[in-house]
Amino acid sequence: MSNDITWLTFFVLSVFVGIEVISKVSSTLHTPLMSGANAIHGVILLGAVLVAGEADGFALVVALVAIVLAAVNMVGGFLVTDRMLQMFTRKPAARKGAER
User: Fold this and answer.
1) CB–CB of 47/29 below 8 Å?
2) For position 79, what pLDDT does the model report?
3) Residue 12: what pLDDT?
4) Cα(38)–Cα(43) distance, rounded to whole angstroms?
5) Cα dihedral across residues 39, 40, 44, 46: positive or negative
6) How far apart are CA 8 and CA 11, in angstroms?
7) Average pLDDT for residues 36-51, to the nearest whole number?
8) DSSP for the chain?
9) Distance of CA 76 to the CA centre of its chain
10) Over the stretch 2-31, which tens digit does the pLDDT of each residue have?
């Protein structure tokens, strides 16, 4: 079996495992799970940058796509997490004399 087929099989199986794991998570845990996944996407982004530095041809294209997708996913995850955390902060109470 060639090395490319091995990596393709590994990728397809990991996609199936990821879909199965995420579909079993209740909706109340999705945002905290995304917050933890931001760190994982940081590692993926770093790995994609390292691969892009050593790659050429098709591997370079795949690495650049991985960099873009990991960066978008990581930034989006941080924005969603920040928005969720803002829902739990208390707004300052309005002063009584200021209402006129």
Assistant:
1) no
2) 84
3) 92
4) 9
5) positive
6) 5
7) 81
8) --HHHHHHHHHHHHHHHHHHHHHTS-GGGHHHHHHHHHHHHHHHHHHHHHHHHH--THHHHHHHHHHHHHHHHHHHHHHHHHHHHHHTSPPPPPPGGG--
9) 7
10) 888 888 898 899 999 988 887 887 766 766
Residue 41 CB neighbours (<10 A): 20
Task: Read off the tokens for 71.
Answer: 């960066």
What tokens appear for 20 in the block? 């199965």
Query: Considering just the CA atoms, what is the radius of gyration of the chain in Å?
Result: 20
Comparison of pLDDT for 61 and 95, the residue scoring more: 61
Which of 25, 33, 32, 38 has its CA nearest to residue 84?
32
Cβ neighbour number for residue 71 with a 10 Å cutoff = 16
Matching residue, tokens 């995850």: 77
